[in-house]
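User:
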Amino acid sequence: MIECKNVSKVYIGDVPALENVSFKIKEKEFISIIGSSGAGKSTLARLLHAEEKPTSGEIIFNDENIAEFKKKKIWQHRRDVGMVFQDFKLLPKKNVFENVAFAMEVSGKSDKEIAEDVPKILEIVGLAGLEDKYPNQISGGEQQRVSIARALVNRPKVLIADEPTGNLDPDSSWSVLESLIKINKYGTTIILATHDREAVDKLDKRVIVLEDGKIISDKETGKYDLNNKK
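Assistant: Predicted structure:
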C-alpha cells in the first residue's frame, strides 16, 4: 500500500532530517514510528501526507509516486490519507458535531450524509452524547478524539497520527490510542508517530525506530527498548 524507497529529506543549510529511509506498510496495518525529538518522525509524517516532497527517493502510495503529484492530485491524496496533529486544531466556536461536520462540508457532502455519518463516527471514538459540547467544555483527550473523528469522517484509507498524545496525561493518552486501535479494526491503516515508548509497548504492534533520520530497527511485533536498542 505504502512504500518508502531510499527517502531522504534535507532542509536549508544541508540539515538532513531523513537519510535513505526504506520500508513498506501493508493495507490495514497498525504501525508505530518512534524516536526522540528531532529523529525525523514528523518530517516523515509530512512526506506521507504530501505536505512536503522528499529531497531524493520515492514514496509510493497505491502504485503512484507521491512526490510527482500535482496540486489537484495532492488534495485527492489527502482524502485518502487523513492526518491528526498534537495540537487539536479544533474550531473554538463550533461544537463537537459541527467540528466533525465541517470536514464533510468542505468535501461537498450533503446535509443528509452529514446527519447520518457524524453520529456514527462520534460513536466509534467514544464521544456519543458530547455532540453539543464546545472544545473548551471537554477534556484534552476528548478534544483529540474530536480531531480523530474529523480526520476519519471522510473515510480515509490511512490515518497518520503525529504525536497525538503529546499534550495528554496517561489516562487520556490511552483513550486516544484505544480509539486508534478501534479505527484500525474497522480497516483503516494507522501510522502513529510518537516518542511515547510506554504507549508503543502497550500497543505491542509493529514498530519502526528512527534515530537521527535513519531507521535503526523495524520489528513486526513486540516491545522496543530505546535504551538497549533491541
